[in-house]
Amino acid sequence: MSLTPPQLADIRCLAFDVFGTVVDWRSSVIREGESLGQARGLEVDWAAFADAWRAGYVPSMSRVRQGRLSWTSLDQLHRMTLDRILEDFGITGLSEADKANFNRVWHRLKPWPDAVGGMHRLRERFTLTTLSNGNMALLVNMAKQAGLPWDCVLSAELARHYKRDPEVYRMATRLLDLSPQQIMMVSAHQDDLNAAKDEGLRTVFVMRPLEFGPEARPDLTIDPSFDYVANDFHDLADQLLSRSEARQSLALS
Amino acid sequence: MSLTPPQLADIRCLAFDVFGTVVDWRSSVIREGESLGQARGLEVDWAAFADAWRAGYVPSMSRVRQGRLSWTSLDQLHRMTLDRILEDFGITGLSEADKANFNRVWHRLKPWPDAVGGMHRLRERFTLTTLSNGNMALLVNMAKQAGLPWDCVLSAELARHYKRDPEVYRMATRLLDLSPQQIMMVSAHQDDLNAAKDEGLRTVFVMRPLEFGPEARPDLTIDPSFDYVANDFHDLADQLLSRSEARQSLALS
């Protein structure tokens, strides 16, 4: 693990997975659910609701990936799942405006505490891009609200393929006009990193043990072939920047 | 001219033309040409060279727009024009590395003096995106070098159509999930604004009388149907932000 100095010097761009890696979707959805519940007098287990919403994520994208559903943006997939689980949870009486607004909670997710500061440090040396299944509008709105300092916003939408389809990673190298070894994928999801690695990208596994909540027991056994493993984005900056760069970047963050 | 208050309140995004509007391509190309000339002992009129390079821009894109050339990135079009005018100017003896590096001068163009400060002010209220014929890699690299604070980088490359084809403007509304009236095109080129207006976008004409050099006499007769006319990006911020926003934004810029 960890690249040799010439390999590291080659890295031009860090490409970030977003949901779970940069932002804490679960707490954000719970918090907005609770506000909505209070405003509309609903009694709901919002943690269970958030988990059910997220549980619809992979199956809904799989329908697109397998060609059973034509290209559908993540906003639309989120809405399809929302409509289904509102029914499952027996929630009635929400207006169309309530539902449309709640569906956009995914545009308002809050970053993990280290994310913005760590990104500012990493941005001194690398080009930072999203490489996310979120649609462009979602990612741009999220960045604006959360203050995420991207140099570039790239979405699966531009490839009309969802991760882990290889077309998504290839789209990034093509649009940034870089070779795969010049891009390092940063993700809390090992299958994402393995798919990136298959396309020749470098890899960083960021541990986000709380992504699925304090009760979850995620498998944090780490594939030894990842180039770096980091506890958070500051730890990643400490590992990737030279000592003098790291000192400077801390002063800036 | 100038939108009513409810129309202005609808605007969510400013979409900027880049070459000539945000950055001063001519001075930047002349400056790098002079450095290259000194390093390689070349006697060249670099202002004439810059003008010739830029003169190849519209005709080369026209070949793509008319289907006489399949999709070709602006980096590649710039290189095709460069190879031709090097010959026209009788310049020989440049290595492939020299030519590849000089071709990337378009990634290193310098902003007009008001651009970065004005953008920081406008960004407090609006989402700022490029809507440029430059390819994604060019625009991302330029932003990084020049410190241009984009929220989003959108290129004609994503539509595989060059402005003024309507597909480029439609791509922006689609990817940002906005209606055309929520986007205002900011450009120093009236044909760009007219094409944007045809797609329902709002329009700002920014006067850049020096784009083609101090000798040029550009036609600054202004189409009265543009929503705003601005002398530079600070003037635009003064017009678009309320008085209290304008004061705050000046303190930030």
Automatic annotation (TrEMBL), chains A, B:
Top enzyme class: hydrolase
This enzyme's EC code(s): 3.8.1.2
Keyword Hydrolase: yes
Gene3D superfamilies given in the database record: HAD superfamily/HAD-like, Putative phosphatase, domain 2
Keywords, in A-Z order: Hydrolase
Membrane-spanning intervals of the chain: none
Catalytic reaction(s) noted: an (S)-2-haloacid + H2O = a (2R)-2-hydroxycarboxylate + a halide anion + H(+)
GO molecular function: (S)-2-haloacid dehalogenase activity
SUPFAM superfamilies the record matches: HAD-like
InterPro entries: 2-HAD (IPR006328), HAD-like_sf (IPR036412), HAD-SF_hydro_IA (IPR006439), HAD_sf (IPR023214), PGP-like_dom2 (IPR023198), S-2-haloacid_dehalogenase (IPR051540)
Family stated for the protein in its record: Belongs to the HAD-like hydrolase superfamily. S-2-haloalkanoic acid dehalogenase family.
Function: Catalyzes the hydrolytic dehalogenation of small (S)-2-haloalkanoic acids to yield the corresponding (R)-2-hydroxyalkanoic acids.
Annotated PANTHER family: HALOACID DEHALOGENASE, TYPE II (AFU_ORTHOLOGUE AFUA_2G07750)-RELATED (PTHR43316:SF3), HYDROLASE, HALOACID DELAHOGENASE-RELATED (PTHR43316)
Protein name: (S)-2-haloacid dehalogenase
